[in-house]
Amino acid sequence: MNKVLITGASSGIGRQLAQDYAQQGWQVIACGRNRAALEQLAADDGSIYPLVSDVTDRTETLNAFANLPFIPELWILNAGNCEYIDDGLMDTERLARVFAVNVFGVAICLEAIQSRLMKGHRVAIVGSIASELALPRAEAYGASKAAVGYLARSLALDWQNKGVAITTIFPGFVATPLTDKNNFPMPMMITVQQASKAIRTGLAKGKKNIYFPARFTWMIRLLALLPYRWQHQWVKWLVRV
After folding, report:
1. pLDDT tens-digit readout, 210-241
2. Which helix H or strand E contains 12, and what residues bound it?
3. Domain harbouring 73, CATH code
4. Which domain holds residue 166?
5. Is beta strand 165-171 parallel, antiparallel or unpaired with respect to 122-126?
6. How many other C-beta atoms can be found within 10 angstroms of the C-beta atom of residue 143?
7. pTM to 2 decimals?
8. Which of 56, 60, 3, 57 is nearest to 30 (CA)?
9. How many domains, the chain?
């Protein structure tokens, strides 16, 4: 039976992935901070095992991952946070909160699982298409996702000799409790069901990078190829700032 561990499984994309993999017959370790939400997942499907852990707490995460009910061959590091910098006024406490989850949380999980990885395993890290194009108010979120994208690409080079593959996932806008807080237009937004399908399909194919929704992420990637001055002009026009 296939086995997977998913962080950030209390809500949003992570929760949908846990449900969908369980329905496909996988054994699932659903990791998150919300005990009630994880226990509900487990109550709904007996193949889901709740693991309550805060990925920003190194000691707690190392201990939790040292006592897993089984060793997965697929590890999806999905936990994330988003806060915006308003009016370009730098707020280092806000920046630190975002980096604590999006960068150091991923790094802590990687440290926790590295001794358990075997040849043929795959680690999927959820980044963001926002990392590929500078956007207003995204100084904290975009920078954190750019950092984790570089981390994933670099680690993939070091782990390839071990036979461990790394996939980086680049979502656009997905309707989740995180994006529910946004007060600006979010073009081509998709559902968590669509996001889960894109991720599961891409991972099943062994893709190194997964982008979705296709049209929106291709547009962002094309804009990112332009000189920075042109990128800024296009972004100003797109967001009307």
Report:
1. 999 999 999 999 999 999 888 888 887 766 54
2. helix 12-23
3. 3.40.50.720
4. 3-239
5. parallel
6. 19
7. 0.93
8. 3
9. 1
